Each structure stands twice: as structure tokens, then as C-alpha cells.
Amino acid sequence: MSTVNAIHDEVTFRRAAALAAIASAPLAAGNLLAMLWAARLNLDALSDPSVLLRIGEAGAGLWRWSMVLDLFGYYLLIVPLLLFLRTWLRPRSPNWIDLFVLCLLAYCLIGAIGAAMLATATPPLIEAYPAAAPPTRAILEAVAGALSDSVYRGLWNLLEECLAGIGWLGLGLVLISGRRRLGMATVLLGAACLVDSLGSILRSEAISMAGLAPYLVLAPLWAAWMGVVLLRDRADPLERVGRVNAA
């Protein structure tokens, strides 16, 4: 590839990654709003499958869309950003940057799988529940409970949050020397993910929520912030780090 083509490829991919990251933020917010709307603002439905099954057919459609928004808002649309960050930051510490980005890519894959599972498997259970006989309702509740525990407590809160915590914490420590505020926000995001994962390991709802709530807010804000940085600041962040350290 010629130098001109390489530069063009970097510029276009950088812009695409930035725009995708910025677009992910409103989709992530839409995910939270759609879930609350589907549950008629009953927060118990978000953690109790037996309550979720009673939200009705209209709620089932909204719930499906909330998971589709989750799929793109929290996961898939930040993949280009992560790939670009690897190229952007790798000269500083190749092995560590590879590890941190790999952890975040795994977070995106695992999270997207969970969202896709909930988007396809939960709505049919909700739609079948109102007309089901009591014995069948008990079966539907057991299936919904197993699905919820597998995705929320297993794939999401335990596994993906652990990987995301390692990835964001590591990237934050790399960024902090040249972009202090963004680096600190990234570190806080990583710490929140690790707290959520720890709560899941200890089976403590209070600890898990102490990390999950900040993560749900910080993750889309971080993506949008990083997207704006890529669009506005054309300088290599490593050059900036070098100037700051030399000052």
C-alpha cells in the first residue's frame, strides 16, 4: 500500500470509528429508556424474570428493541474505536496495549452475544405467559430465570465486566499522562466494571450495583468523548504525552 493510500485509509477509518463511537451514546441511552418503558418504570422487572414476564405483548416488543439498542449502543459500535486505539497507542507499550484492547474486544463480543440472546429468547416467553396455564407459567418462569442468570449474572456482570475493567483501567493508565481528564474517566470506568464483577463473584447485589450504575452512564459517555477527541485532535497522543513529560 502506498503512503498516500495508507494515510487515506487511516483518516477515513479514524473518522468512521469516531462517528460510530459518538452514535453509540444515544443508542445506549435509548436502551435504558426502552427497558424502563417496557417495564412501565417497574425496576423489579429488570432483575426479576417473574415480573418481566408480566409486562405484556407491547412490553415484549419494547424489550426486544431495548436489547437491539444495547447490542449496538454498548458493544458493536465501539469496536472500530477500539481497533483504532490499538493503532494509536500501541507504539507506547505494544504488549500491554494489545492485552487491554483484546480484553475490550472480548467484552464487546460477549456483551453482544448476551444482548442477541435476550433480544430473541425473552420476547416469546413474555408473549406466551398471559395465556399459559399455571403449570406452564412455572416452566416459563424457570426458563426466563435461567436465561436471565446466564446472561446478566454470568456473561455480563461476571465475565464481560471483568474483562472490560481490565481493558479500560489499563487504557486509562496509558492515557492519563497525556490526557489527564480522559484518562481519569477511563480509569473510573474500568474500576466500576471491576466492582460490578466483584459483586457478582461475591453474590452481593449491593456491591454489583455500586459498579453497574456508574458503568451504564460512563461507558457511552466515554465512547462519545473519545469519538470527539478523534474528530477534533489530529495529533498523535503519544507526541502529546512526550511534550507533557518533557515539560
Briefly say what this structure is.
The chain is mainly alpha-helical. Helices cover about 85% and strands about 0% of the residues.
Protein model, in words:
39% of the residues are buried. This protein has one domain (3-239). It contains nine helices and no strands. The radius of gyration is 20 Å and the shape is elongated. 85% of the residues lie in helices and 0% in strands. The protein has helices at 3-38, 49-52, 56-75, 79-89, 94-128, 134-175, 180-202, 205-232, 237-246. By secondary structure, the chain is mostly helical.
Strand content: under 5%
Helix content: over 70%
- What is the CA-CA span between the terminal residues? 37 Å
Low-confidence stretches: 237-247
Overall pLDDT confidence? 90
Topology, number of strands? 0
List the helices and strands and how they pair.
Elements: H1 3-38, H2 49-52, H3 56-75, H4 79-89, H5 94-128, H6 134-175, H7 180-202, H8 205-232, H9 237-246
Record keyword descriptors for this entry.
single chain
